[in-house]
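Subgroup meeting minutes
Present: P.N., E.W., G.H.
Scribe: E.W.

1. P.N. recapped why we're keeping a running log of single-chain structure predictions: easier to compare across weeks, and new members can see raw inputs and outputs side by side.
2. G.H. added today's entry (207 aa).
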Amino acid sequence: MFSGIVETMAQVVQIETEQTNKHFTLRNPFGEALSIDQSIAHNGVCLTVVKIDGDLYTVTAMQETLRLTNLDLLKVGDYVNVERSMLMGGRLDGHIVQGHVDQKATCIEAKETDGSWYYRFEYDSSREMIERGYFCVDKGSVTINGVSLTVCEPDIQGNKGYVSVCIIPYTEENTNFKYIKVGTVVNIEFDILGKYLSRYAAILNQK
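Output recorded in log:
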């Protein structure tokens, strides 16, 4: 489990394709402190460390993960947001994040607003997806590229959902939000509590 409070960014230094899987080798400031089998969130995707070489480490993404996330779009030199799993008894500074990305979203607006940054994203939606909790509510929580954020201006129009977030300068500088522009594809994970409640309500309505 994660909190959505990004620790740092890791840079992709090598990508290897093996059948339908991809092996990503990355470098980050705490790389030498990692261990094999450790879970690390990369742009919000929980991946397992399979190899360590000094300050470099390797994780593997399978076909389904590549399909649902923006990891398949990564290139050597790109930066991803990384967070180690929470320690039991630690503070939950963000919200409950599983590291199980629900789908991709596309940035449709990005602008500076008097010292902070405003981003708006568009994602696919449907009645079935809403019943599974794949939507946002005003002042609720959402995870974008592994960053826990507060929702503003949520909306659903036809087969598209929309969510906006505002980023303080610290988050803009210390995560890969500073590389996001109109057209950038990001990972989105909806609130797990909302998903449980939505699914429960859908089951009750079927009875």
